[in-house]
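Weekly structure sync, notes
Attendees: PL (lead), two postdocs, one rotation student
Agenda item 3: pending single-chain targets
PL asked that the sequence for the first pending target be pasted directly into the notes so everyone works from the same version. It is reproduced below exactly as submitted, 108 residues in total.
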Amino acid sequence: MQKVKSAGVPKKTVTGTSSNTAQSLEDLGATVLVSQAGSIQPQAIFADISVETNAVRVCRGGDATTSLGDLLQPGDSVQLQGNEEVSTATFISAVAGAHASLQITTEF
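Predicted structure, written out during the meeting:
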């Protein structure tokens, strides 16, 4: 079993599905911002993403494509650290039509 370092208070783990277009963690259903009326919105400082089915590419700071970004296979995981990396990372199915199931946990 892989050990994941915790960076804060975790939100609920969600399952996201990659697609043929680049998606942010928020697009995939993860909590990246917490809405609070009249105050600063807390942003996620850490995210742990594991790949369950099919390959996916992840690109930090830009849009992933089927040929751009780190290639993750089923069983692989990636940890994103810091508000900027968490909010700008994008994911895309590595092979068109073969969408990946992702387990995503963000922390604040």
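Discussion points:
- The helical segments are 83-88.
- The beta strands are 14-17, 23-24, 46-53, 56-59, 70-72, 77-81, 90-93, 101-107.
Action: rotation student to compare against the earlier draft before next sync.
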